[in-house]
Amino acid sequence: xxxxYVIHNPQAGNQAHGDIISQIKHLRTIVRWSDTQYAGxxxxxxxxIANTVTDPEAVVLAIGGDGTLNExxxxxxxxxxxxxxxxAYIPLGSGNxxxxxxxxxxxxxxxxxxxxxxxxxxxxxxxMTDDGLYQxxxxxxxxxxxxxxxxxxxxxxxxxxxxxxxxxGLGHFSYLATTLAAFFQQQAFQMTVMTGDQYQQFTQxxxxxxxxxxxxGGGIALLPTADLTQEGxxxxxxxxxxxxQFLKLFMALKKDGSHLAHxxxxxxPLQHGTQIYVRDMQPGxxxxxxxxxxxxxxxxxxxxxxxxx
Length: 309
Description:
Layout (H helix, E strand, L loop, with lengths): L2 E6 L9 H8 L4 E6 L5 H12 L5 E7 L1 H12 L9 E5 L5 H5 L5 H10 L4 E10 L6 E4 L2 E5 H11 L1 H8 L5 H13 L3 E7 L2 E14 L3 E2 L3 E2 L11 E7 L3 H13 L9 E6 L3 E13 L2 E19 L2
Parallel strand pairs: 1-2, 1-3, 3-4
Antiparallel strand pairs: 5-6, 5-15, 7-9, 7-14, 8-9, 8-14, 9-12, 10-11, 12-13, 14-15
């Protein structure tokens, strides 16, 4: 096994993973163990590893939820290195959408896979550069959302039910519990998409999600054909609709992907340098972590990164 530099979020999931944490700590090749202490700390820890570690056998092991994985990935990618450090992952979060898409299974199953892995694999990673209010560049492994799904994420992250369901091992249901309230709160908005020579305007956008893999919201199959191992990203746009239409669409979304044939749903494969503009203030989310409501002027790109899974 390689030499593991661990970044662990002790607040992830139900905070009751003592047995699996003990197993990981007994791995003989752990070189460094760091617990995160605040939101964004994993970015700083990953940057420090990327800037200081010269060990050719190094692998950064992120332990936590999708948000922890996102922070570690951003810390590694925001640092200039000749050879990137591979990233491993043990899922301990609420939704665990990346683990589902990467076929890692539970934390115990992911640890088993980790022990068997002998070389990294290249996975696709999305990148957003925002020319709007915040002037930021951020990477994502799952998805980037504007509008409805971002509002669901925001409500879920603030809901007391999330912690209660996490303690029961049912954290993924916390997303479902806030969906209906978010539907009535989220209004339609205008957006523009320019990808390659394709230019499209949407006046009644409701859900806008750039996805790198099939799942969001704790296992909802938004785009069943998406694949982490394939280069590229897809944009899924749903227009505002009646509540009855929404319920029918949501049931299809939970089953077999037939929602993609709905007349209110548009799917667009994105090319390098795609530009997306939203002029109204809207909620946003990246890999299940809330962004401050903002206007958006995004340039979207993608690249590969080595994962040790």
